Amino acid sequence: MTRIISGVAGGRRLRTPPGSGTRPTSDRVREALFSRLEHQGLLDATAVLDLYAGSGALGLEAASRGATRVLLVEAAAKAAATARANVATVGLPGVRVVTDTVERTLRGGPHDGIRYDLVLLDPPYDVSEDDLAAVLALLVEHGWLGPDPVVVVERSTRTPQPTWPPGLELSGEKRYGETAVWFAEPPPDGGGA
């Protein structure tokens, strides 16, 4: 069972997509990640982009904790339908689901002119390091990032640190069992997006 950990929708149960194509973030990892983000003031009244959203659990957790705009992007139709059902169950305003590939969505630029303060990426295991690097570059190149963004990538501890594009650099790393979480931000010299 997956659930919203905290915030106004805390405790609400979320459906998970049928089949084995998605890998929901464990409650333990979500709790640690969002406690850190909340402590840094990265959730209240922010815009959040959740790429490879699956059930939408990460983006919905952000909405529950104060994010005002959340865009969930998921290519798999069944997973996107599950995310839509979870959005309806949680019932928080400002959450939208796009059913399309992450790459195609990012190449199109922000549809609503919103630049995102927080970007969450939890790609499937079969997304290669090169493909992930290309997605990170699209975030910068196509104007998705706000003036002081934080980008969070969740992967297996067996994968290397993501290749950050110009405009983003590693700002932290945490490991939770078999899960690694990397944080990136613009360089302090202002070389950001």
Automatic annotation (TrEMBL):
The alphabetized list of GO BP terms reads: rRNA methylation
Q: Indicate yes or no for the key word Phosphoprotein.
A: no
One Pfam family in the UniProt entry: Cons_hypoth95
Q: Does the keyword Zinc-finger apply?
A: no
Q: For the region Disordered, what residue ranges are annotated?
A: 1-27
Xref: Gene3D superfamilies: Vaccinia Virus protein VP39
The alphabetical list of record keywords is: Methyltransferase, Transferase
Tell me the superkingdom of the source: Bacteria
InterPro entries from the xrefs? DNA_methylase_N6_adenine_CS, RNA_MeTrfase_RsmD, SAM-dependent_MTases_sf
Looking up PROSITE patterns in the UniProt record yields: N6_MTASE (PS00092)
GO: which molecular function terms?
Answer: methyltransferase activity; nucleic acid binding
NCBIfam families listed in its UniProt record: 16S rRNA (guanine(966)-N(2))-methyltransferase RsmD
Record PANTHER family: METHYLTRANSFERASE (PTHR43542:SF1)
Quote the protein name from its UniProt record.
Answer: 16S rRNA (Guanine966-N2)-methyltransferase
Taxonomic classification? Bacteria, Bacillati, Actinomycetota, Actinomycetes, Micrococcales
